[in-house]
Amino acid sequence: MTRVWHQSFTVLEDVGPYVEAMRRHLDARRLPDTTIDFHGMRPGTYPSAYPGTHIRYSSLSGLHKEQFVAAALQARAEDYDAFLIATIPDTGFEEIRSLVDLPVVAFGNASVAFAATLAPTVGIVNFIDALQPQLRRNMRDYGFGEIVGPIVSIGRGFTDIVSAYDDPAPLLSAFTVAARRAIADGAQVIVPGEGPLNIFLADQGVSRVDDVPVIDSLGVGLALCEVRARMYRTSGLVPSRRGFFFETPPAPVLEAAREFYRGAAE
């Protein structure tokens, strides 16, 4: 059996319809012996139900990394087989990857890497324009700078996506228009940016726009969790442990530092 800890950037209690769609979708994508436990941010993290009020700011996103780090350490303590960072800015990915040996898979990293197996120029179609600088920097740091081409927005917001299940046509049209803009600018495969848009498109059966494939980003992330978990069990595969971004600090030093900052915040 493979147990996957799914970590969202949303407060799941605030977005019931999205959570239901996400459970339905990933349950259909998982292998028979995989279980997925869905986790979100702590209630009250955001001033509204929409994390975009914080995710667009570097300083606030940095503060929220601690919830992802704490979740990953808990996942390790509870013997999960993989940890899925289910947000396209890959919040806390580098930090978490350096702290735990269990497989850590991140939405943006995994979906773009997979998309590049289908075509050499990947377009991202998202709904949070303010994320574009962070996505560009992430992709450069991953070595994907020359792979990712256009990043375009659908011109809709989070509430539009959540409410679109009752009337899908307008959002489907907005996505198609944006995807065609990306294709005109050179995209040969499309990654939907952020989980809510990805889940909506998959729920509506969207896998292509014209002759260009559209990736199921979270489905890819889950599949990679399953593969990485199997490789971890069978061969002990873990990330590099050399260099600033990969070395693991001694456990007592790490815990003392985290305890100090917990106390400073109280």
TrEMBL record:
The record's listing under Pfam families reads: Asp_Glu_race
Q: Which superkingdom, per the lineage?
A: Bacteria
One example of the protein's molecular function in GO is: amino-acid racemase activity
According to its UniProt record, which protein family does this protein belong to? Answer: Belongs to the HyuE racemase family.
Q: What is this protein called?
A: Hydantoin racemase
Q: What is the lineage of its organism?
A: Bacteria, Bacillati, Actinomycetota, Actinomycetes, Streptosporangiales
